[in-house]
Amino acid sequence: MTKLKNLTRQMKILLAALVLLAGGLALAYVNRAALIISFVGFAQKAAYPVGPNRPVNWQNAGAWQGEGQRPPNIVVILTDDMGFNDVSYHGEGLIETPHIDRLARQGVQFANGYAGSAVCSTSRAMLLTGRYSTRFGFEFTPAPDSFAPILKQLAKTDAMPRRFQFRAPSDDAAGHELSFWQRGLPVEEITLAEELRAKGYRTLHIGKWHLGREGDLLPLGQGFDESLLMSSGLYLPVDDPNVVNARNEFAVLDKVQWEVLDYAASFNNSARFQPDGYLTDYYTDEAIKAIAANKEQPFFLYLAHWGIHTPLQATKEDYEAVGDNFPDHRSRVYAGMIRAVDRSVGRVMAALEEHGIDDNTLVIFTSDNGGANYIGMPDINKPYRGWKLSFFEGGTHVPFIMRWPGRLPRGVTFTHPISHLDVLPTALAAIDETPQASQIDGVNLLPYLTGQKTGAPRDTLIWRSDQYQAILSKGWKMQRSDLPKKTRLYHLTEDPTEQKDVSAQYPEKIAELSAILAAHNAQQAPPRWPNGVLMPIWVDKTPADNVTLEDDYILWPN
User: Cβ(222)–Cβ(100) under 8 Å?
Assistant: First the structure.
């Protein structure tokens, strides 16, 4: 009897253990994507540790030794994911941006300024080269091969699956031989930094890069003398007493970022270390130091802010300063982040004024693309439809300002379409130079801004990401995709916010624009690496909304 009781007890224990194991396995399966992300984050932090803060010492290269009048400094301030309605100089804005507004009043604001692409990396490649990135095969954002399957698993938990497609690249697709670390801006391309350094400029990079992760693909290999690199994407550690966080549980990307991102920087390819303070302010502090160290010679400063990209983190001071007149906590944190970027612009301009070089500095302010839908805020690109990762105006129509008191008019609004492509040829024209590359897609804007030329600088702008493409020509905008098969046509002159698709009424215009697009595509290079994912981007809704399968969408390839 005792033996039987013991056996029964053992069987119960075994059964309980099996139940617990089964439950654990089931739970692990349900949460498999989250577990994978946690593992990736742990492995990354173990492989690439972050040391304590170290001082950044910007080299003082001495006084300019050239002859004649000193050439102008070039300062490019690039924000990340800033929507058209995130600034107030055009009359609206989520919050007041007094420093950016002042920059606009003192220079030229572009009512129709366009990003090179609807995503960060390709836009940055175009801004720095003056060329369509598809000319050199930079068609997709560099990402690890594991990224797409993880996103797919996460998307399943967010009721997105039928519009979230994962495609394994075919065996004959280009770029299989390139690892994630080797995917970036080809070293053969000539950047604005390389052009200006060849003319005696000190070239300085601060912040985001996103054009390659190792060797000569990093800024020091692409023309910059010094580089303070964003090595990860937290603005402050999540438990810092001075930070206010806003997690967006409805957003796939957000789930990844909070797990895998660090608070880290690198200077001149050093080991990673912690920044000193809130990231936007830290970059600004270092930009001011870099200006002071190079004030006696011509310099090119590329200040590429991470703000206002997710993860949403604001300082407590900014969070309190913007007040509580917002619909939710998330919006208030976002507003605080905008305030930090606006403050940065003001502080950089003050530094130029302090050293008496502001009148001889061409300052260009813009964003890499429009505001993102994955932050769950509907009005960031107002009045335009769409978001980052779409070729609707909301994805590409961005804040854009140029200020140069020595040459450009004050308080002027330029209405013709211009692009990131125009930054390089315009900056080189400021020092009476022309680009070295044989094929430049950008236009020197100076003659149009100073009244030497009239009319539009160009007839056509084109955006392409694999099967999803768009063209803007003489007031007409066509979007075309193969997945899903759809052609949209908008007459922006009469319908600037793309509310009325007139493709059925104007087949001849579709044919005309399709022919221009086909001729352009024939000149582009094949992608340097394959894409493996198609992400659904709803045109009029965010992931925080009640999205249905009947809502309009595009599939963004990456």
Answer: no
Please tell me the distance from the alpha carbon of residue 499 to that of residue 406, in angstroms, as a whole number. Answer: 41
Per-residue DSSP letters for 350-409? Answer: HHHHHTT-GGGEEEEEEESS---GGG--TTTTTTS---TTS-SHHHHB--EEEE-TTTS-
39-48 confidence digits (pLDDT tens): 566 666 677 7
Residues ≥6 apart with Cβ < 8 Å to 132: 116, 126, 421, 441, 462, 464, 524
Non-local (6+) Cβ contacts of 241 within 8 A are: 316
Residues facing residue 537 across a β-bridge: 554
Q: Is 188 exposed, middle or buried (0-12, 13-18, 19+ CB in 10 A)?
A: exposed
Is pLDDT of 69 > 80?
Answer: yes
pLDDT in tens, 457-512: 999 999 999 999 999 999 999 999 998 899 999 999 999 999 999 999 999 999 99
| Cβ contact 61:294 at 8 Å | yes
Domain 72-557: which CATH class?
Answer: alpha beta
Specify which residues 376 forms β-bridges with. Answer: none
Total residue count of the chain as it appears in this document: 558
